[in-house]
Amino acid sequence: MEWNVIGHEWAARLLQQHIANGEARHAYLFTGPAGIGRRTLALRFAQALNCTQPPAPGLPCGACRACQQIERQQHTDLAVVQAERVGGDLKIDAVRELQRSLSLAPYESRYRIALLPRFHEANANAQNALLKTLEEAPGHVILLLTADSAEDLLPTITSRCEVMRLRPQPLVTVAGALQAHWGAPPDEARMLAHFSAGCLGTAVLKGKRTDREALRENLHDAYRTWLSFWRDVMLRSAGAQAALVNIDVEERVQAAAVQTGLETARRQAAALEKGLARLNSANLQLLTETLLLDWPRVG
Ligand SMILES: [Zn+2]
Q1: Ligand 1 mean position, distance from CA 76 (Å)
Q2: Is the residue at 142 inside a domain?
Q3: CATH code at position 23
Q4: Which run of H or E residues covers position 216?
Q5: Residue 187 to residue 179: CA distance in whole angstroms
Q6: Rounded to the nearest whole angstrom, what is the distance from the C-alpha of residue 257 to the centroid of ligand 1?
Q7: What range does the domain containing 264 cover?
Q8: Rounded to whole angstroms, how far apart are CA atoms 189 and 29?
Q9: 222-260 pLDDT per residue, tens
Q10: Does residue 1 fall inside a structural domain?
Q11: Residue 210: per-residue pLDDT
């Protein structure tokens, strides 16, 4: 399997070297927009750290029990601590409980690993509590944080982490990878790539299955997500004060509302509704072509 993190090969190489040279740090922070692959990279690193049959120093095999359990986030020496929902609040109690478990020796692996996705959702108390762990972590502990950006965290946290800044990939790279690794036909690949550059890269990259049906499901998710996005744009264009569904991308909604206006947003939502209804029966290629041709320009 190796790392299989499309576009972030530089980061994978660096992490691999850290392990191979016995220079793994106590804490890493993976930053970048949601859906870019920061959690995937962190999990690969966790696999590489605890793999029982590495094909080369610092490489995860992907097949041993440890690699498979870490992939499912169900490994005894992997603790995953995050807010209950996206956009939620990670509280100090969760961090304290984590600290207690980290003080114990690993059950069966070399390292006890804590994964803290979306750590920008930790409130100040929780961040301060983690600081203590960052300063005094036992040698068998490695902390893996992810966040939208390093600037969202307390500087005292960031300065104690090795920061890996992940950047969005060009559309053509994403489309190429979808064709090569997921067997997506060119037009679907282009469409999914287009979506991934928006606010839901997750829909594309979470698809580990290679069959066409998985792609269709991803497309389904993508349509639904974009539909809720454009409905929010309609709300804002109309000046309604109702709460947005996509509160996590409120600025994006606002920008689209200003740039496109109510009529365009309404037309776009209607096109997506129609597309969603026809997704199971229609010619996907034709459907996506039409949708992309009319996609409102939002800069
Ligand atoms: Zn392995």
Answers
A1: 15
A2: yes
A3: 3.40.50.300
A4: helix 212-237
A5: 10
A6: 48
A7: 171-293
A8: 30
A9: 778 888 888 999 999 998 877 787 777 788 888 889 988
A10: no
A11: 42
